[in-house]
C-alpha cells in the first residue's frame, strides 16, 4: 500500500505535510515533565530524536519512575539516618515537619542534579 503524501504551499515552496505517529498514552509525573522542559531548552537535538523516533514518552516515563524511586529511597534513608521517627512525630510534630521538609528539599536537589538536569 502506497502512502499518499500531501503538500502545503509556503511562499514559493511546496512542503510535505508530515505527521508523527501516535505516541503511547503513558502518564508522566512531575519528574518526567521537568526533564522534558530541560531537554527542550538545553538539548533540542536529543529531544527531537526521541520525539521523531516515538521513544520520548517511554523515555520520560522511565526517568520519572527512576526519579520517584530515588526520591522516596533517599528520603527514607536520610530520615532514618537523622533520627526522624514516628516517635518524634508523636512527641514534637512541628520539629518532625521541619526536619522532613528539610530532608525532602535536599533530596529534591539531589534528584534534580543526578537525573533530571543532567
From TrEMBL:
* Highest taxon of the lineage: Bacteria
Q: What is this protein called?
A: TnpV protein
Amino acid at each position: 500500500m502506497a502512502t499518499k503524501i500531501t503538500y502545503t504551499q509556503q511562499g514559493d515552496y511546496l512542503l510535505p505535510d508530515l505527521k508523527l505517529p501516535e505516541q503511547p498514552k503513558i502518564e508522566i509525573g512531575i519528574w518526567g515533565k521537568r526533564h522534558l522542559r530541560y531537554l527542550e531548552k538545553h538539548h533540542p537535538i536529543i529531544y527531537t530524536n526521541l520525539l521523531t523516533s516515538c521513544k520520548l514518552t517511554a523515555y520520560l516515563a522511565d526517568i520519572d519512575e527512576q526519579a520517584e524511586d530515588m526520591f522516596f529511597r533517599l528520603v527514607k534513608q536520610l530520615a532514618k539516618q537523622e533520627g526522624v521517627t514516628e516517635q518524634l512525630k508523636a512527641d514534637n510534630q512541628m520539629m518532625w515537619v521541619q526536619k522532613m521538609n528539610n530532608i525532602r528539599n535536599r533530596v529534591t536537589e539531589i534528584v534534580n542534579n543526578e537525573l533530571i538536569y543532567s
